[in-house]
Specification:
Layout (H helix, E strand, L loop, with lengths): L42 E2 L3 E5 L5 H8 L2 H4 L9 H16 L3 E8 L7 E7 L6 E8 L8 H17 L3 E7 L3 H9 L3 E12 L2 E11 H11 L5
Parallel strand pairs: 5-6
Antiparallel strand pairs: 1-2, 2-3, 3-4, 4-5, 6-8, 7-8
Length: 226
């Protein structure tokens, strides 16, 4: 998701941060009844935990997501601690409105987020979404992305009811495109000059995952992230 749905000018200068949500681990039995608009569950993998962003994540996200290596293929992230605090507050408000979900990526043995996964509704009812991710380069190739992607796609399908996931990656972003291909996303085409970064337009690859394909893929491999 090269274009971040959050834009600083959307905030009216407020720094009010929602009270800490009460988190609960998601189990298969509870998946269909989880009230994700009230608070996000905690999703556990073997080497990663996904949870709702907290104010305490602002410093680590600032340090890890603003490097040139990470940010060159995404729209500019906040550049200050205050900016990330406002972004985190915005994610809570958008989740409460049922329009957007953002999970922090917390590798095993850590307590703060090193990146994030996002789901943004593309239609009323969240039947289809744009999804994306950003993560500190120190954790690339560690297996954290693949486990986290499985967790959030399962959550999107089983809890929110998403039928179609769309992801965009700049053609020049070989690592991002490779990661999407590896988890089973299907390349649908190239969106010409669709992403503006630093005054230059880039072509993007459009990827998709359909819920029925995802379920079939995991049935065939016998894998599950629950």
């Amino acid at each position: 998701m090269e274009r971040m749905p959050y834009q600083p000018h959307q905030d009216a200068g407020t720094k009010i941060f929602p009270g800490a949500a009460v988190y609960a681990e998601m189990s298969p039995a509870a998946a269909t009844t989880t009230d994700w608009k009230a608070s996000l569950p905690v999703l556990h993998g073997q080497c990663v935990t996904l949870r709702e962003l907290q104010l305490s994540d602002a410093a680590s996200l600032l340090a890890l997501l603003t490097t040139e290596e990470v940010s060159r293929f995404i729209s500019p992230p906040p550049t200050t601690l205050d900016g990330f605090e406002k972004f985190i507050a915005w994610t809570h408000r958008q989740r409460s409105a049922g329009q957007y979900v953002c999970f922090g990526i917390v590798p095993e043995g850590m307590t703060t987020a090193v990146g994030l996964f996002q789901l943004r509704s593309l239609e009323p009812g969240f039947g289809s979404c744009e999804w994306g991710f950003a993560m500190g380069s120190q954790f690339w190739g560690s297996g954290v992305f693949e486990q986290g992607a499985n967790l959030i796609i399962d959550f999107g399908i089983e809890v929110i009811g998403i039928q179609r996931f769309e992801a965009r990656a700049a053609v020049a972003n070989g690592r991002g495109n490779g990661a999407l291909r590896k988890i089973g996303a299907v390349q649908e085409g190239v969106l010409r000059r669709s992403f503006l970064r630093n005054g230059q337009y880039h072509d993007q690859v459009l990827w998709s995952i359909l819920s029925e394909d995802w379920r079939l893929q995991h049935e065939n491999t016998g894998s599950s992230v629950h």
